[in-house]
């Protein structure tokens, strides 16, 4: 308490010093002086400082001052008599009407008396000021015809020995100074308790729209990088001509993205319980794809949220990773997802955050609060390790308007991006098939007016519009359409897995092996499915690969530069196929990017208490 009082007093004295220095160094405005710096005459001598004046030499008044003169135009003209007037004192001149009108309602001070009325013993006279000068209060230039100011009489200057020097920076009387180099043990204890009190009340700002933390680095895990290079992803060709029809218009420049205003879907539906994956939501358990990986509770994010339940036993201190990147122990780094993490500490209290974006487009946010050091025995004690989590389920299929708008925003640019490599002999990025789609989606980052599309995450490239598979040399086919659009459009992205597909224009029996296990390509021509029953295409409609028609793509692989090819899905014999529609992440998922903490507003997710 004593140290606080000293510190407070020191602060107050510092403010007073500043104010005193400011007051002492205030200059007189030019308009309030009787000297014109541009007239060429030297300035008049300044009056001596007040602290230099020898008050002992001040003459005493032997007689009372004469009464002030009457004011001819003043609001009031009091007559105060202080006694008989002295003969040697000159009368004060009366104030003119213009001077009285200078300030409304208040009489200005009288002008200085004319020196011509003083005895000859005084210095030479100065010209009187005109009424106009007094009425305007302006610093009018002094004419050189008036002569220079009176000479300085050196003999009237007070001697320097007649005053004491005053230090402007001296401390005020009674000021208490703190000797920081000789603090007592008691003062040190008080000081550090004061610091503890300050930092105990300190808490960092929580902002879900950007990755921030206090007290520790923000880690952006490079898990968003493309899958590892597989040299076996090059399509295997057999019994068909090696030279295929190319794209004669390969020199067409990229199309600039059109400015769009997509309808935001910031509110995510909460009926996620029925969604095991993008396909299982169609209530067809027999049509479960091999990708994304199956989940226990409807989505990958939901599974991790169950891992954060207090009833789930933890046996590793995964959130104290020495490498700086944290990942729940229920996940594997090679599973293919994007994640970002961060941590913060205040004293011994530490907080770890992690945000994970899964290939099924579900999102998880987890927080662990604990006190260091933490042991394995503390992991399942809620008083020592506090867990909290929030997640979003996979988004539901969109209608025709949203999907067509997504094509108009991204489709043409993606198709032209892929076609620009055809015939050049140059690879896109590393030359991997996946790079062609990934780089096309990243191309929109340079246009700030275009909403960010859903990034390529593992083998997911946006809104899934079709999944199909074939087996037994094409004798068995099944598939399902997803979403409100009724066709494949230019700029869609196709994924193959262990597929054996016939090629249009090849010799009889010619086919291509796509994917070992996966292969990616960009569709550059639209196609309208033709259901065998003639029905209109709609969401959830069963649709076999043989009803999808011919798919025209631009693809590349290690050892094979980008080239244009056509695949006839009616000749698909084995494997799986996915077709994605690139779409705005904000429109489809509800956020622009995944950070380590969930957004505070605009998102309806699930907390642990709701599981």
From TrEMBL:
Pfam family, one: AIM3_BBC1_C
Top-level taxon of the source organism: Eukaryota
Listed Polar residues bias regions: 26-36, 235-266, 274-289
Region (Disordered): 1-167, 209-298
Biased composition (Low complexity): 71-106, 115-141
UniProt biased composition (Pro residues): 40-50
BBC1/AIM3 cysteine proteinase-fold domain span: 390-591
Record InterPro entries: AIM3_BBC1_C (IPR057402)
Name of the protein this chain belongs to: BBC1/AIM3 cysteine proteinase-fold domain-containing protein
């Amino acid at each position: 308490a004593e140290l606080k009082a000293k510190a407070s007093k020191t602060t107050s004295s510092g403010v007073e010093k500043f104010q005193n220095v400011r007051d002492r160094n205030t200059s007189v405005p030019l308009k309030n002086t009787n000297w014109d710096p541009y007239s060429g005459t030297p300035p008049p001598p300044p009056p001596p400082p007040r602290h230099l004046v020898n008050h002992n030499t001040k003459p005493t008044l032997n007689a009372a001052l004469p009464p002030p003169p009457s004011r001819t135009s003043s609001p009031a003209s009091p007559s105060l008599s202080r006694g008989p007037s002295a003969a040697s004192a000159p009368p004060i001149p009366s104030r003119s009407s213009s001077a009285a009108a200078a300030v409304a309602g208040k009489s200005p001070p009288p002008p200085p008396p004319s020196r011509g009325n003083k005895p000859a013993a005084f210095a030479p006279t100065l010209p009187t000021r005109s009424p106009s000068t007094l009425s305007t209060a302006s610093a009018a230039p002094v004419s050189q015809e008036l002569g220079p100011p009176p000479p300085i009489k050196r003999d009237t200057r007070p001697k320097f020995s007649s005053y004491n020097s005053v230090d402007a920076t001296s401390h005020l009387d009674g000021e208490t100074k703190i000797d920081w180099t000789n603090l007592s043990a008691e003062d040190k204890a008080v000081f550090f308790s004061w610091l503890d009190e300050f930092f105990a009340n300190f808490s960092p700002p929580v902002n879900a729209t950007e990755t921030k933390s206090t007290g520790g680095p923000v880690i952006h895990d490079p898990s968003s990088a493309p899958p590892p290079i597989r040299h076996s992803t090059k399509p295997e060709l057999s019994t068909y001509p090696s030279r295929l029809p190319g794209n004669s218009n390969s020199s067409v420049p990229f199309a600039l993205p059109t400015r769009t205003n997509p309808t935001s879907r910031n509110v995510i539906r909460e009926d996620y319980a029925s969604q095991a994956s993008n396909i299982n939501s169609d209530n067809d358990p027999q049509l479960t794809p091999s990708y994304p990986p199956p989940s226990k509770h409807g989505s990958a994010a939901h599974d991790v949220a169950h891992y954060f339940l207090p009833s789930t036993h933890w046996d590793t201190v995964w959130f104290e990773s020495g490498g700086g990147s944290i990942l729940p122990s229920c996940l594997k780094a090679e599973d293919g997802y994007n994640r970002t993490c961060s941590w913060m500490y205040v004293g011994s209290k530490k907080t770890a955050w992690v945000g994970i974006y899964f290939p099924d487009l579900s999102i998880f946010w987890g927080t662990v609060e604990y006190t260091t050091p933490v042991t394995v025995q503390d992991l399942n004690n809620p008083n020592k390790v506090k867990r909290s989590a929030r997640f979003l389920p996979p988004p539901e299929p969109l209608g025709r308007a949203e999907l067509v708008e997504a094509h108009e925003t991204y489709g043409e640019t993606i198709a032209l991006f892929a076609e620009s490599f055809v015939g050049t002999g140059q690879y896109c990025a590393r030359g991997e098939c996946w790079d062609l789609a990934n780089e096309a989606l990243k191309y929109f980052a340079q246009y700030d007016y275009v909403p960010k599309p859903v990034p390529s995450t593992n083998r997911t490239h946006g809104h899934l519009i079709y999944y199909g598979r074939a087996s037994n040399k094409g004798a068995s086919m099944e598939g399902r359409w997803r979403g409100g659009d009724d066709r494949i459009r230019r700029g869609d992205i196709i994924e193959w897995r262990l597929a054996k597909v016939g090629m249009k224009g090849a010799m009889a029996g010619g086919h291509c092996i796509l994917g070992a296990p996966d292969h990616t390509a960009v569709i550059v021509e639209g196609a309208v499915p033709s259901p065998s029953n003639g029905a209109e295409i709609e969401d959830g409609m069963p649709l076999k690969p043989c009803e999808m028609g011919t798919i025209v793509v631009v693809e590349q692989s290690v050892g094979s530069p980008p080239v244009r090819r056509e695949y006839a899905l009616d000749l698909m014999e084995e494997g799986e196929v996915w077709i994605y529609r690139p779409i705005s992440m904000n429109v489809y998922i509800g956020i622009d990017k995944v950070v380590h903490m969930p957004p505070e507003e605009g998102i309806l997710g699930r907390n642990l208490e709701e599981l």
